[in-house]
Every structure is written in structure tokens, then in C-alpha cells.
């Protein structure tokens, strides 16, 4: 009986494991650390690059977040895929 329980437990745990995730980029780590303390994480594809820039500008203007230039660049690189965030 103990053996059956152990097998069932192993199978249950194995079934609950999702697809392995690749390593997290510095930008993703920064985004999750700075932006998700107030709201859920959004997928980068949920907004256009310009909308991401606008959203970060708004959060900074409303004093919801303070980002150093390098932090902002990392986050925008993660969200937009553009190392410059968005070329203006």
C-alpha cells in the first residue's frame, strides 16, 4: 500500500510540472521586480513598443515607480525587443 501511494505521489507531481522555462533575462527580472509589486505581469506582446514606452512614462510621471536610466533601458529592451526601448 505504501509503495502504491509513493508511485501515485510521484505521478501526480510529474503531471503538475509545466514545460521547463528558459533562463530569465536581466530585463525580465527587472520588469518583474519593479513593475509587478503593484499589478500583474503583462506579456510583452500585449502592447506595441510605443504603448510600453507610454505606460512606463505614465508610471514614472505618477510617481508609481522610480527607474534609473539603466533600469528603464533593461525593462524596455525586454518589453519591446529594442535595445534602445523605442527609437524616437
What does this structure look like?
This protein has 88 residues and is mostly helical. It has a domain at 48-88. It is 56% helix and 0% strand. The chain has 4 helices and no strands. The protein has helices at residues 2-15, 26-35, 49-61, 69-80. The longest helix is centred in the N-terminal third of the chain and has 14 residues, at 2-15. The protein is elongated. It starts with a helix and ends in an 8-residue tail after the last helix. The relative contact order is 0.14.
- The whole-angstrom Rg is 19 Å
Termini gap: 67 Å
- List the helices and strands in order: HHHH
Overall geometry comes to elongated
Percent range for β-strand residues: under 5%
Number of strands: 0
What are the low-pLDDT stretches, counting only 5+ consecutive residues below 50? none
Secondary-structure-based class equals mainly alpha
Q: Biggest sheet, in brief?
A: none
Count of individual helical segments? 4
Helix content class: 55-70%
Amino acid at each position: 500500500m505504501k509503495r502504491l501511494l509513493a508511485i501515485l505521489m510521484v505521478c501526480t507531481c510529474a503531471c503538475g510540472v509545466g514545460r521547463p522555462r528558459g533562463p530569465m533575462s536581466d530585463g525580465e527580472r527587472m520588469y518583474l521586480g519593479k513593475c509587478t509589486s503593484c499589478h500583474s505581469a503583462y506579456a510583452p506582446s500585449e502592447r506595441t513598443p510605443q504603448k510600453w514606452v507610454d505606460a512606463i512614462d505614465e508610471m514614472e510621471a505618477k510617481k508609481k515607480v522610480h527607474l534609473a536610466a539603466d533600469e528603464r533601458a533593461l525593462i524596455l529592451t525586454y518589453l519591446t525587443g529594442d535595445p534602445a526601448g523605442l527609437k524616437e
